[in-house]
Design brief:
Length: 122
């Protein structure tokens, strides 16, 4: 017959219970600090990304507004040319010369055509 040794667990003494509770408290506090630090770092990183996105969006809005204004001037110049209003046409073309860089490529080609027409008129 084999000797079977049975291990009996001894009940925890108050001192061991206290040590285990302190150890668990230290582990919990360390885990909490790691999570808190991770949260702060992530919030800071997200704020930087948000600021960059916000700045980019503001720049895009300004570019679209400039492009829209320049395109509106181009339409006004075309209309002035169509109806034969030389004064309005010249005024629009003068304003367009200052903001030609804001025109999209197809509109810039139209501007160049109108500029050629203006030169031919004068």
């Amino acid at each position: 017959m084999e000797d079977k040794q049975t291990v009996q667990e001894e009940p925890l003494t108050p001192r061991k219970k206290r040590a285990m509770v302190e150890y668990m408290g230290i582990l919990f506090a360390a885990a909490f600090l790691l999570v808190a630090i991770s949260l702060v770092v992530k919030v800071h990183y997200m704020q930087d990304n948000f600021d960059a996105a916000s700045q980019g969006a503001s720049e895009n809005i300004e570019a679209i507004q400039r492009e829209s204004s320049a395109t509106l001037l181009l339409v006004q110049a075309q209309e002035a040319y169509r109806i034969g209003d030389a004064g309005a046409f010249t005024r629009c073309m003068d304003e367009l010369s200052a903001c030609k860089a804001d025109l999209p490529e197809p509109a810039a080609k139209i501007y160049d055509s109108l500029l050629t027409l203006q030169t031919q008129q004068n």
